[in-house]
Amino acid sequence: MADPTPWAAKAAALYDERYAERYRAHDDGLADSGPYLGFVAWLQRVCARFTAPAEALEIGCGTGRYFSALRNVRTLVGLDASPAMLALAAHPFRADAITAERVTLVEGDALAHDFPAGSFDLVYSIGVLAEHVPLQAELVGRIHSWLRRGGRFAFSTVHPASPSVPQTAARRLGSALLPWVPGSLHAYLRDRYLAAGLYADEPYLRALLADGFEIESMERFVSEAHLHCLCVARKVNR
């Protein structure tokens, strides 16, 4: 296994056994959760876009919270940097409702772990990218290589306008200046506004995915914690 990046090492330390147990206990109360059911419905709409059963990868699968949401998926790989979370993903929420023929759990870092080119029809991630892991060109390029031709990358981000994002004086000033400053200063302020990929809005996603993907859908979604962007992008030839 490749050495983890600082982001993966941080996640593995944070999501220890005690945290993982609390997280898994929360899973069991999700049956009536509106935001959870909203993510499930979105993911099922993504699955319905495939005309044949898909091979899928979840980046940051945690305790397997969304495994049972998948439909029209033959095999699923769950990738996570936390061994404690993966241990509980072996017994995920609504395990009896999982329809994938095979689920494989892999301890690894999406920024360092590798899969053979063209391994998956679907790569998805909910509550991880542009939230706990920066969503940047390097990772998008890796995902592009893992997907088969016509495969889909479906993911959530935290929108920089989310009420959960601290609105410091410097952040408010930078946001006000953005429409008016040119060139390199604009790029610098945008990068700061998006925390170098830890938040992502629609213009950022369109630019990030322009080389190698065609955006099929992009929508905003409000969970109990954040304002999100939900994006589905289809791989096209570079």
CATH architecture: 3-Layer(aba) Sandwich
Note the gap between the termini: 29 Å
> Numbering strands along the chain, what is their spatial order in the largest sheet?
3-2-1-4-5-7-6
Provide the structure class.
Answer: alpha/beta
Number of separate strands: 7
CATH topology value: Rossmann fold
Largest sheet: 7 strands, mixed
* Number of continuous helical runs: 8
Helix and strand string, N-terminal first? Answer: HHHEEHEEHEHHHEE
Strand % is 15-25%
What are the low-pLDDT stretches, counting only 5+ consecutive residues below 50? none
Helix content: 25-40%
The number of domains is 1
Q: Briefly, what CATH class?
A: Alpha Beta
From the spread of the alpha carbons, the general shape counts as globular
CATH superfamily: Vaccinia Virus protein VP39
- Computed Rg: 18 Å
Walk me through what this model shows.
This protein is α/β, with parallel strands linked by helices and 238 residues long. The protein has a single domain, classed as Vaccinia Virus protein VP39 (Rossmann fold). It is 33% helix and 24% strand. It contains 8 helices and 7 strands. The chain has helices at residues 6-14, 17-27, 34-47, 83-89, 137-146, 169-177, 183-193, 202-209; strands spanning 54-59, 73-80, 102-107, 120-125, 147-158, 213-222, 227-235. Strands 3-2-1-4-5-7-6 form a 7-stranded mixed β-sheet, with helices on both faces. Strand 6 (213-222) and strand 7 form a beta hairpin. Helix 6 (169-177) packs across helix 7. The protein is globular. The two termini are 29 Å apart.
